Amino acid sequence: MTATRVLVLNSGSSSLKYQLLDMRDSSRLATGLVERIGERTSRLKHTALTTGATRETTGPVTDHAAALKAVAEELGRDGLGLDSPELAAIGHRVVHGGSSFTEPAIVDDAVLAEIERLVPLAPLHNPANLTGIRTARSLRPDLPQVAVFDTAFHTTMPESAARYAIDVSTADEYRIRRYGFHGTSHAYVSRETAKLLGKAPQDVNVIVLHLGNGASASAVRGGRCVDTSMGLTPLEGLVMGTRSGDVDPAVILHLARVGGMSTDETDTLLNKKSGLIGLCGDNDMREIRRRVDEGDEQARLAFDIYIHRLKKYIGAYYAVLGRVDAIAFTAGVGENAAAVREAALAGLEELGLAVDAGLNAARGDGARIVSPEGARVTVAVVPTDEELEIATQTYALVGASHDLT
Ligand SMILES: Nc1ncnc2c1ncn2[C@@H]1O[C@H](COP(=O)(O)OP(=O)(O)O)[C@@H](O)[C@H]1O
Ligand SMILES: CC(=O)OP(=O)(O)O
Ligand SMILES: [Mg+2]
To answer: 5-149: which CATH architecture?
Structure first.
């Protein structure tokens, strides 16, 4: 029997999302998540699509290692356990791959050491990713583990976009440059957008707006990323659920000198207490829209700041690309919030950018066009699927390495 299944693990700072796919037809066999890892009220939600069974358990899950063991048990209960001979590989989302990883990599000790070395650049994400890999390895030492990096797609950025204008030797010593994140999503969505236009990826220029809890924009020319809004860490760029995005770096100096704030306090402020939640107390766009509709001024201002920043990046990437064939909205907010899409493009008709009110408000499942018929730039809603992309890359790499042996 050939092994055709791939388990995808996406370890966040306090969550573990997973999907088991059969790569013969890319179908999903199981999916789920463990939330609030490290708290007393952790929750595991598991769905086996093979039987339709859904189970939810609550109780303390101390760390990512315990979370993965709990997931393995749940999969086992549906006959989809990690011991299955049909499992070909485990694919891991790794957030920071630095400059070294331009492609996915089969995990060995050297790869692990490099991910470990990058922990200071992604302190919220890389440690969880490492625990996921190490635990998966201990459960199935014989199975290939593949790391798929958020940063890989952005390694094509020219130096003019990837470098900060700071002293070169200091930047090089500390490996300070713009790496970019959500690359798996930007790669997948830009390709799907080309497909929607009926063109090859190398023939289209796309601005991808990945608007989830974390949010980033990218400019993709002919299938290659030429700029993206996140930088050294996933803090730069757009206004996010809890992250500030761009601020004058002197804000941090000012808070230290005048406010006496420590590095950790500023880190928490900018990563966890800023963005939408810092501006209005809510980070869920549904709740913010509800408040705006009720006339809540604070929510209105938070929404306007979010949109203003988004619009600036659309304009910037329009200029970077010179010619834009499509703008793709994706992730939780981008796929679902018609009001965000409408507001972000309002007033940009001179650039050939507009949404059709009816198409934009309509709901739909797959990728769909929301710009008016005959528009110069196609505006589209393109659902992202990071797990499918990770599984595809994992399976391709494992298949390729088998061919070599
Ligand atoms: N129907 C909706 N309308 C507006 N926003 C939505 C809707 N559904 C989800 N969202 C937004 O999507 C966000 C989550 O996006 P998602 O891409 O799943 O995030 P992440 O993967 O970063 O956790 C939520 O915080 C919420 O603000
Ligand atoms: C890199 C990043 O911001 O990821 P997420 O959106 O999953 O937090
Ligand atoms: Mg996401």
So the answer is: 2-Layer Sandwich (3.30)
